[in-house]
């Protein structure tokens, strides 16, 4: 009798609702079609997470920033992915330390992203 029950007419997408539950497939009413995604105007959060070469418009992850020293308030321009230790020109305080990717700013140092 169970076999006869599964031979009922299928939904518009060809999935039987009972089979969707058995195979852990999403029900046809909850399926998201790929046509629903706007490829020309993707969400900013989604683009930010993509690799820099796979974005709709290629853009680097790195930038230059002005870092203010916590001791003497001197402003130094630093590359965001600096691979060397950057020290203040006046008081020789360490402003940032390199990591595998972005440089880690010293606690208490404030920064702002440089514009064009």
TrEMBL record:
<keyword id="KW-0479">Metal-binding</keyword>
<dbReference type="GO" id="GO:0006412">
    <property type="term" value="P:translation"/>
</dbReference>
<protein>
    <recommendedName>
        <fullName>40S ribosomal protein S27</fullName>
    </recommendedName>
</protein>
<dbReference type="Pfam" id="PF01667">
    <property type="entry name" value="Ribosomal_S27e"/>
</dbReference>
<dbReference type="InterPro" id="IPR011332">
    <property type="entry name" value="Ribosomal_zn-bd"/>
</dbReference>
<keyword id="KW-0689">Ribosomal protein</keyword>
<keyword id="KW-0863">Zinc-finger</keyword>
<comment type="similarity">
    <text>Belongs to the eukaryotic ribosomal protein eS27 family.</text>
</comment>
<dbReference type="GO" id="GO:1990904">
    <property type="term" value="C:ribonucleoprotein complex"/>
</dbReference>
<dbReference type="GO" id="GO:0008270">
    <property type="term" value="F:zinc ion binding"/>
</dbReference>
<keyword id="KW-0862">Zinc</keyword>
<dbReference type="GO" id="GO:0003735">
    <property type="term" value="F:structural constituent of ribosome"/>
</dbReference>
<dbReference type="InterPro" id="IPR000592">
    <property type="entry name" value="Ribosomal_eS27"/>
</dbReference>
<keyword id="KW-0687">Ribonucleoprotein</keyword>
<dbReference type="GO" id="GO:0005840">
    <property type="term" value="C:ribosome"/>
</dbReference>
<dbReference type="InterPro" id="IPR023407">
    <property type="entry name" value="Ribosomal_eS27_Zn-bd_dom_sf"/>
</dbReference>
